[in-house]
Design goal:
- By secondary structure, the chain is of the alpha/beta class.
- It has a domain of about 130 residues: Nucleotidyltransferase, domain 5 (2-Layer Sandwich).
- It is built from 6 helices and 5 strands.
- Keywords: Cytoplasm, Endonuclease, Hydrolase, Manganese, Metal-binding, Nuclease.
Length: about 200
């Protein structure tokens, strides 16, 4: 599979997010502007890469990109505006950190809202098709994972270091035992069944 650069415009920015389906932690987005001749044989959708490869790619992407930005949107805001709007807000935040003037935005997925009147295109599975989106997916995932590992130290019983806030059996069991924290998304259904009291 060969990832390619998008050729509509120079100064194209690719953007992607990580953490939409999590019960805890932020939704995190990254935006990356790569040089026209950028090539990397390892780079792929972050979900297809091992943690080791993602961690190797992150500094390389940061060094070789023309510019990049990363933004977190935290649970309180997610609960206020919903996860789709929070994901788009995170992507807007990441793009706003790009140096220069992006002329075109390519977005992983099928939903986006205009940003500063810059033309954009949504691309299904864009992170497995275009290098700038794949690079953004790697940065979004690694920055979010780093944040989850940090808050794991505060609440180790949820094992966020391993599950990163996703709804694993272990994570849900910890919610049953300990309840939710300030890092959990209250608008998400934390447990698959609603526990009822027999009165």
């Amino acid at each position: 599979m060969g990832l390619k650069n998008y050729l509509h415009f120079f100064d194209e920015v690719g953007t992607d997010e990580a953490g939409r389906g999590c019960l805890a932690g932020p939704v995190t987005a990254a935006a990356v502007m790569l040089p026209e001749n950028f090539k990397n044989d390892i780079l792929n959708d972050s979900k297809q890469l091992s943690e080791t490869k993602r961690d190797l790619l992150r500094p390389l992407i940061e060094y070789e990109s023309l510019s990049f930005g990363v933004a977190h949107i935290f649970p309180e805001k997610i609960d206020e505006i919903n996860i789709l709007n929070a994901s788009i807000l995170a992507m807007h935040g990441a793009i706003s950190k790009i140096n220069g003037h992006p002329k075109f935005i390519i977005v992983d997925g099928n939903r986006f809202k205009p940003f500063k009147n810059i033309p954009f295109e949504c691309i299904i599975k864009g992170d497995s098709k275009f290098m700038s989106i794949a690079a953004a997916s790697v940065l979004a995932k690694t920055y979010r994972d780093q944040y989850m590992e940090k808050i794991h130290l505060e609440y180790p019983m949820y094992n966020w270091k391993k599950n990163k806030g996703y709804p694993t059996k272990e994570h849900r069991q910890a919610i049953r035992e300990y309840g939710i924290t300030k890092y959990h998304r209250k608008s998400f259904r934390q447990l698959p069944e609603q526990l009822k009291l027999d009165i």
